[in-house]
Write a structure and sequence with these properties.
Blueprint: H1 2-25, H2 33-36, H3 39-56, H4 66-82, H5 89-117, H6 123-150, H7 165-188, H8 196-204, H9 209-221, H10 225-255, H11 265-299, H12 301-318, H13 329-342, H14 345-351, H15 359-381, E1 384-385, E2 390-391, H16 395-398, H17 404-422, H18 431-441
Helix pairs in contact: 1-5, 1-6, 1-7, 1-10, 3-5, 3-9, 3-15, 4-5, 4-7, 5-15, 6-7, 6-11, 6-13, 6-14, 10-11, 10-15, 10-17, 11-12, 11-13, 12-13, 12-14, 12-17
Organism: Novosphingobium pokkalii
Keywords: Membrane, Transmembrane, Transmembrane helix, Transport
Subcellular location: Membrane
Length: 442
């Protein structure tokens, strides 16, 4: 199962490390980056809940989740292959919509599949192992360009549009890897056959997009308390990660390589350095995700997640003040702890508080709690003049003074706020502690 998830997350890693620079190579300025990256949050907002509700109601010969795995994998591979061939900002932005649609069609069923295949007492381990493979996949995605340069490719060898050929090679590898691993995963780990009760429930449920939308609306109205509380944590957590992914390369370019010119060799070095640092923190998340398994059983996913988010917030606060490449890897440890926890512990809290029959739709709605903060972040931070209309509030330019270091400091503060807010979610604590708290309250 996790091998297919590795291919999917390799695609996400390529986006995180390269979309900002690709836009810059094609002529976009830094203040425009959040709005140009809206494809991810908007497709996630629209696609994942809908796919979740539809997959919960699917009972065909190919299974509940498999049809969505396959369609998403093809779209993802196509988007990855074409992206480095972009000749304009508009073309790159359009292809990002295709790529993110494919990623989101595949992502939601993979989350639900863990719950489908595992018993409740196994899900914490299941989601943390999925988090580990996220770290491994993104580590490989971020590190591959530096490996290509290390074996002889020129980092300054660019096409007519300024996009390095290292980007073209690694995106082509990503297209092959994502499609091949997802197909292998589907073949080697077929879905469990539906029980008679499950099949009867699906057959009795209304079909079609209208029924799926009604299901989403009803699920939101009856959302479990734990899931509602996780919404505040998600607001801070994903706003912080959005800003970090978009602007960390630009911060490194200024503090370590003393450049703001996206077409300079020094900026190419900053992109590679960010890839190496991101590979390192994803390696940290890969290792620590397994180490978290006994800890989460002892103290619960909520308090553990709070500790990891705090470490990540402190790391982001430190990054803009570091001018030596080697020292960048110290705060990256904290970012790695946070990322490893983000991809596992909130899902462990969530799946133990939602009804199994609605796993798909609630996974989709939980993704809305990821993409809405990213959408708000884009509108608040960015500024895009289309001539006939201006989009965004322009906080990055007018309040943060177009300084990526100020952005990273803000992201660090937001991650610390997320750490404090997750402690409000009692359902993420061990049962014995929850019972003691309830007795004390009584």
């Amino acid at each position: 199962m996790n091998l297919g998830f590795l291919g999917l997350q390799f695609s996400f890693g390529l986006q995180q490390g390269n979309m900002g620079p690709i836009y810059s190579y094609l002529g976009a300025n830094e203040a425009q980056l959040p709005l140009l990256s809206l494809a991810g949050p908007i497709t996630g907002l629209l696609v994942q809940p809908l796919i979740g509700a539809l997959s919960d109601r699917t009972a065909g010969r190919w299974g509940r989740r498999t049809p969505y795995f396959l369609v998403g994998a093809v779209l993802c591979a196509l988007g990855l292959f074409l992206m480095p061939l972009s000749s304009s900002v508009l073309m790159a932005a359009s292809l990002l919509w295709l790529l993110d649609a494919g990623n989101n069609i595949t992502m939601e069923p993979y989350r639900a599949y863990v719950s489908d295949r595992l018993n409740p007492n196994q899900r914490q381990t299941g989601f943390l192992s999925q988090s580990a493979f996220t770290g491994l996949a993104q580590m490989l995605a971020f590190l591959t360009p530096s490996i290509l340069v290390g074996v002889g490719m020129n980092q300054d060898w660019v096409d007519a549009h300024g996009i390095p050929y290292t980007v073209r090679v690694v995106f082509t590898l990503g297209a092959v890897l994502s499609l091949a691993t997802i197909l292998w995963s589907v073949w080697r780990v077929p879905e469990l056959p539906l029980t008679a009760q499950e099949r009867a429930h699906i057959e009795a449920a209304p079909k079609g997009f209208g029924a799926a939308l009604a299901e989403i609306a009803d699920a939101i109205r009856t959302m479990p308390v734990a899931m509602r509380k996780l919404g505040l944590m998600s607001l801070f957590q994903w706003s912080a990660m959005s800003g970090y992914w978009l602007y960390v390369t630009y911060s490194i370019a200024r503090t370590v390589y003393h450049t703001a010119d996206a077409h300079s060799s020094a900026f190419h070095s900053a992109v590679l350095t960010n890839g190496e640092m991101a590979a390192f923190y994803n390696g940290i998340s890969f290792v620590t995700a397994f180490a978290m398994v006994p800890l989460v059983r002892r103290i619960g996913p909520g308090p553990l997640h709070a500790l990891c988010l705090m470490a990540g917030g402190l790391g982001m606060l430190a990054l803009p003040h570091i001018a030596d490449k080697a020292l960048l890897f110290v705060p990256a440890v904290g970012v790695g702890l946070a990322w490893g926890s983000i991809m596992g512990n909130p899902y462990a809290i969530l799946t133990n508080s939602i009804p199994p029959a609605r796993t798909g739709v609630y996974m989709g709605i939980f993704n809305m709690m990821i993409v809405i903060p990213m959408l708000l972040f884009a509108v608040v931070m960015s500024e895009l003049d289309l001539g006939f209309i201006k989009l965004g509030l322009g906080v990055y330019a007018h309040v943060l003074h177009s300084d990526p270091g100020n952005m990273l400091s803000l992201c660090g503060g937001l991650l610390i706020a997320a750490a404090l807010s997750v402690l409000w979610v009692r359902e993420g604590r061990p049962q014995a502690l929850r019972l003691a708290e309830a007795a004390a309250g009584a």
